[in-house]
Amino acid sequence: MASCTRTTHPVPRHYSFGLWLTSILLFTAATTPTTKGCVEGERDALLDFKTGIVKDPSSRLSSWRGRVDCCRWSGVVCDDTTGHVVELNLQNSDPYNYETSIGGEIRPSLLLLTHLERLNLSHNDLSTDGLHWLSRLTSLRYLDMSFVNLSMASHDWLQAVNMLSSLEELHLHDCGLTDIPSSLSHVNLTALATLDISDNLFNSTIPNWLWKLHNLSYLDLGFSMFHGAIPAGIGNLTGLRELYLGDNSLSGPIPTEIGIWNSLKLIDLSGPVPTEIGIWNSLEYIDLSDNSLLGPIPAGIGNLTGLRELYLGDNSLSVD
User: Fold this and answer.
1) Average pLDDT, stretch 202-210?
2) DSSP 3-state assignment of 227?
3) What is the pLDDT at residue 296?
4) How far apart are CA 277 and CA 86, in angstroms?
5) Where are the domains positioned within the chain?
6) How far apart (Å, rounded) are the C-alpha atoms in residues 94 and 86?
7) Are the beta carbons of 201 and 178 closer than 8 angstroms?
8) 113 vs 319, residue with greater confidence
């Protein structure tokens, strides 16, 4: 019986190379990010911003080089699909150490980052000749420029910020601001949930446009030289969970309208302690210390069964 033999043909060399090349290409396609890379105009805008920086002791901008994809730069985040810059975070990593802060001028070339959603320049030695460029960043949802010197922008900061209808968080703590309009013809900040403009130099009554920010859950106006009465309109902020008004020169009673809030967890106020405080059942934290409070501590405070922290020190209060 004749045996069957299997004839083996050598694989052509060009076929082996082609198979190897195909495998490499498929592997590369599977492991390469889908990002289109940095948008050229936005890269140039960031490089222009860098020219205004004259101090960078921690070399935070050392990766900002023209031949490097700006989506790979320190502090820059891009959309994976479009390549547009959506976040710029240059916050000082050691917030209260100015030896590590970047210093210089905020150049308005940032207005070209029209897809920017988050901007954090806080705790740096920066200044600006106005904030008009902010109004072009219509996609902005988060803005933190706390401890940035905005004294030269005091005249237009609110007008610029008021153009940002998508803004959800605004932090401008200790920026040297001196001007705050008492009213606005149109309040555009309908999405704003967090507002911190504390430790500024307003020397003003509390502006009434604040009570039109119906989505606010956090409001800090402390240490800002506000004076006069707390407007009854504050009762419109029914979703407020944290309120800071302490260390101002406020006078008159705390509005009883605050008592309609069911969501308030923390309150830091100046002014006489209202007898109605006992109905604020949601309160967990009260700080009324370091004021000029007179008279008895309302008995109703004992009804706050959810209260965890209470500070009444450095006043002239008494117990009946």
Assistant:
1) 94
2) strand
3) 74
4) 44
5) 33-318
6) 24
7) yes
8) 113
